[in-house]
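ok so for the tutorial part 2 we go from a plain amino acid sequence to predicted structure tokens. step 1 is just haveing the sequence, like this:
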Amino acid sequence: MLTASLNPPTTLAALSPACCTPVPTAAASFARRHRRSFHLSTAAAAAASEGATVSQENAASVSAAFDEARRAQFAVDWRSARADKDQGKILTLTVLRSNTGGVILKYRSMQGFVPNPLLSPAHWCKDPKRPIQDVTKDLVGLSISVKVVEANEGEKKLVFSEKDASWSTYSSQVKIGDTYDGIVGSVFHYGAFVHLRFPDGNYHLTGLVHVSEVSWDLVQDVQDFLSEGDTVQVIVVNVDAEKSRIALSIRQLEEDPLLETLDKIIPLEPDLSPDAQITSSPAEIELLPGLEGICNELLEEDGITDVKFGRQALEKRVVSQDLELWLSSIPAKDNQYKLLARAGRQVQEVYLTTSLDQEGVKKAVQRVLGRVP
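step 2 — the prediction. this is what the tokens look like for a chain of 373 residues:
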């Protein structure tokens, strides 16, 4: 019995084959658990991958739709910009930021640019010595009135002008003969640009003082007479609405020294009329070269009935080497205006008998000078 009890059974299954199942080992249980986990992880990864693909497709679809909508909006806004330009519409837009060249504005869904030269002089004239870059920084966040001057969709150029908007608003207030206080802006060999101070205290518009209107003296270099930032007084001599230009003069606000000295050079006796000083025959007067041809052309103008020559004189100053014809500021008497023909130091009085007013005489003289070489 002792020997039988010491012999171990062959297997547990052999002892109870009907009611017992094999007991798994630890290694087998571990393998089964990890096989199940692997299958779950693979399924999850596949689902995640499929979800990521769907999500990317949705994102791409949304992005494409957004781009399409944005392009459509840009197309609409470019059409609006072109329409605003064609209509000359004044817009009030916000300044987003500035750079060395100007300021960037918000226009609908787009951005546009105002170069420094197209900004209103009102900003710079508040402190002429301040750098323009500092001035434009102060405009960020503010709204300014502008007009579209370029809307090129192909080149993506959207350019605005504040000066054009100011011209539309204020130019109707400027009349020939008006005087303004001004600040000198840019100075060139052909003249100087002057910013005009309006009754509200701001400098809204800019005009040009031509080199010939700077001084009664001969001006060879405008910078010898004017500098940027100078304060001056000017008179309006012409307004060109079509070209948006204002012509100014400094000289015409001063008495012509020649008119003051001419009577000293050739005294005119009080009891003598200008006709008494006119030589009976033009042949007795050595006319300035080209003057006779100009006078003959003046007689062809409607409203001018007679041209006579008056006194001659030599000036101390040289106004111009070329022949120039100036209309005296002295009012007409008995429908007679006085012109001064000047070349070098020589001066010749010319009297026009005409039914024209002063402005009509100016235009007639300008037309004649344009025809005579």
